[in-house]
Q: What sequence folds into this?
């Protein structure tokens, strides 16, 4: 349960296979409840939406990224992953 935050109860309809996946994740301890799992997924999406708008705006203004841009991103992400792995060790 999320404390210090107003909550409201709603009813949603999900495809059976998706609900099964969510329940399985809860059983594995990846979330405290189905509600917590869905809350985390919605929070991630709402945080991502503005980034999608930014990327769309930049693409409209500057064009789509080229192969060299994508290669630079791949190198950067590899460094971030290495740093995260080294920090976790």
A:
């Amino acid at each position: 349960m999320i404390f210090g935050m107003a909550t409201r109860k709603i009813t949603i309809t999900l495809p059976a296979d998706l609900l099964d996946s969510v329940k399985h994740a809860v059983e594995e301890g990846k979330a405290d409840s189905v509600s917590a799992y869905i809350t985390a997924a919605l929070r991630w999406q709402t945080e991502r939406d503005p980034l999608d708008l930014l990327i769309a705006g930049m693409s409209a203004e500057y064009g789509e990224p080229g192969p060299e841009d994508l290669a630079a991103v791949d190198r950067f992400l590899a460094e971030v992953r290495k740093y995260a792995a080294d920090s976790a060790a």
Observations:
- DSSP finds three helices and no strands in the chain.
- Helices lie at 16-27, 34-62, 67-88.
- Residues 16-88 form one domain.
- The CA atoms of residues 25 and 31 lie 7 Å apart.
